[in-house]
Write a structure and sequence with these properties.
Elements lengths: L1 H21 L4 H32 L14 H28 L2 H33 L7 H22 L3 H28 L20 H46 L1
Helix pairs in contact: 2-7, 3-4, 3-6, 3-7, 4-5, 4-7, 5-6
């Protein structure tokens, strides 16, 4: 009996914690919480991103085979990492919208799209800058490069679909389905090197295997830069989501005014 009571208590406790978490899908509570944590996240972002980039660009040596061009990894690797992870975040929030119909999750996915598209574009540009001296060409139809380009097009298509549909709930439904489909290319962008052994793109710069990732002199500031990029994304995501919530409130108020005037 005591075992059953304990399990029941644990189940209720877990359920209560989940319910408390879902409460922040309420726009009012989300706005209150995000307003409190946003200054702290901005501060942490500044404390990691700026020192990480300065450390990487100005206080690391040239690489034996790559010269100073190796330092592009402090922008390329974090932006590429975020481009993939942002789409994964959009997938999660899109599924929450489809299953739970929480408007904040749909608006968060919408807010993340422009940030993810920008990160993907930065990764493509810096990859081209790296590729020209290393491979002798700015572009090659390498599996990872190609999947990244397709991911970029999916970001553009996602934003275009939001802009093309007037009804926000219908737009959220269709863009969520598109996000699920595009997740295939996000997966390919991450694991293309493992799926196909051929291709110009080298393996991952960060790996659990110490023999594969870059030397510690480059690895340590790179980790700091990645954390900084992650916090930059969270900062921009909160700002843009709060803006989307305000815009939705404004549209609702304007619609009520039009109805009252009619």
């Amino acid at each position: 009996m005591s075992q059953m009571k304990t399990n029941g208590t644990q189940t209720r406790s877990f359920g209560q914690r989940m319910n408390a978490l879902w409460e922040y899908a309420n726009p009012v509570k989300f706005m209150a919480l995000s307003g409190k944590v946003l200054p702290w996240i901005v501060g942490l972002c500044a404390l990691t991103l700026i020192p990480g980039l300065i450390w990487g660009f100005f206080f690391t040596p040239e690489a034996a085979n790559f010269g100073n061009s190796v330092k592009i990894i402090y922008v390329h690797v974090p932006s590429a990492t975020m481009a993939i992870n942002i789409w994964v975040m959009m997938l999660v929030t899109s599924l929450i919208w489809l299953i739970r119909r929480h408007h904040v999750s749909a608006l968060a996915a919408k807010a993340a799209a422009l940030i993810g598209m920008t990160m993907t574009l930065i990764a493509l540009i810096t990859g081209a800058v790296w590729g020209q001296p290393m491979w002798g060409t700015y572009w090659a139809w390498d599996p990872r490069l190609t999947s990244f380009l397709i991911l970029f097009l999916f970001y553009l298509g996602y934003m275009a679909l939001w802009a093309a549909i007037e009804n926000p709930d219908t737009a959220a439904d269709l863009t969520s389905v598109l996000c699920v489909v595009g997740s295939v290319f996000a997966l390919l962008s991450r694991y293309a090197v493992n799926f196909w052994n051929q291709g110009l793109h080298q393996g991952a710069s960060l790996s659990m295997d110490k023999e594969e990732h870059v030397s510690n002199v480059y690895w340590q500031p790179l980790v700091m830069a990645i954390i900084g990029f992650g916090l930059l994304f969270v900062t921009l995501l909160l700002i843009r989501t709060r803006t989307e919530i305000r815009r939705r409130r404004l549209h609702a108020l304007m619609a009520r005014e039009r109805m009252s005037d009619a």
